[in-house]
Amino acid sequence: MNDTVDFNVSPFVVIWENTRACDLACVHCRAAAQPKRSQFELTTEQGFALIDEVAVMKPRVFVITGGDPLKREDTYDMIRYAKDRGLEPALTPSATPLLTEAAVSRMKKHGLSRLAVSLDASRADMHDAFRRVDGSFDITIRAIEAAAKEGIPVQINTTVTRRTIDDLPNMVRLLTDLGIAMWSVFFLVPTGRGKRGDLVTAETVEHLFSFLYETAKRAPFAIRTTEAMHYRRYMLQRMALENGRRIDDLRDHETGLIDASTLFLGHGSRPMPLGVKAQHAATSRAPRGVNEGKGFVFISHIGDVFPSGFLPLKAGNVKTESLSEIYRTSDLFVSLRNTSNLKGKCGRCEFRDLCGGSRARAWSMTGDVFQEDPLCGYQPKVA
Question: How confident is the model at residue 27, as a pLDDT?
Fold first, then answer.
């Protein structure tokens, strides 16, 4: 991806939830998934048509998710079709008895580029309590090992809540032993089954950013954040401090805003080289940070199009409209890409073009998609 990419035209990340059916009952599930498939899901033919549209938009990241995509037998055909259309398909299956070594091998044969699985604690009892199904931890570990045998890079998704935050250092040790490619640390959005009472505080988030930053220096895997766009601001501040540079050196003195073309960190990013300095060097390949509706689009199991899976504001439906037209011209997506619409601290912040805050969390906690992100404790320097 180069500096000519325009997020007004093409997304960096496309995620398709091809079903909401899932045999888990996770306490934080944004989809509040159910065991049975919906009769209104996109058909196989409609799924192929959607992939055709996605391929034309040429995103760097294409993910088939759920629910549990393995609840659909045609998911393997979707992987192969996406691969044949020039995409690099990733899959996020649930840790159920459907996720066998044979299933992982079949994914590889159909062209899977990356496997992403959730692991929310370093111990089986903690993880299974979070996922609310006994044995989920063991299935996850076996799937990671099976992917390693097949040569499939593995991404681990970990949700940060009051229940899991103290276990994160133990997670680093476990993930190091497992040999994963990327750790995606997800900061809870209270939607679906996710509850406000599970959120950590904004002050705790800043401490966690420090932990992630220091861990990235030594971990043998890349680290990114999801729904913590302000980690980009934190990384920029730390790197400027360590390299003896002033933040003002990266600021547009006409607007007071940080030049977002210098960084691409966190939400929706692809794997980066190891170490913070190497990560920073890799960021110049992307023009700005991805955010809801800005480089990111989510298609639901019934074809509804959203700026994010965590922001349930519908912009259209691919059964009757073009995905590219929805992404490029819908009032919702266009307004989300305009950072002058931001309010509160986010609207005043000198990092707003780089970060922009979690629009999903703002909406879920305030009812206003443009309000400030409640989990950011930073005080803007711009009056």
Answer: 54
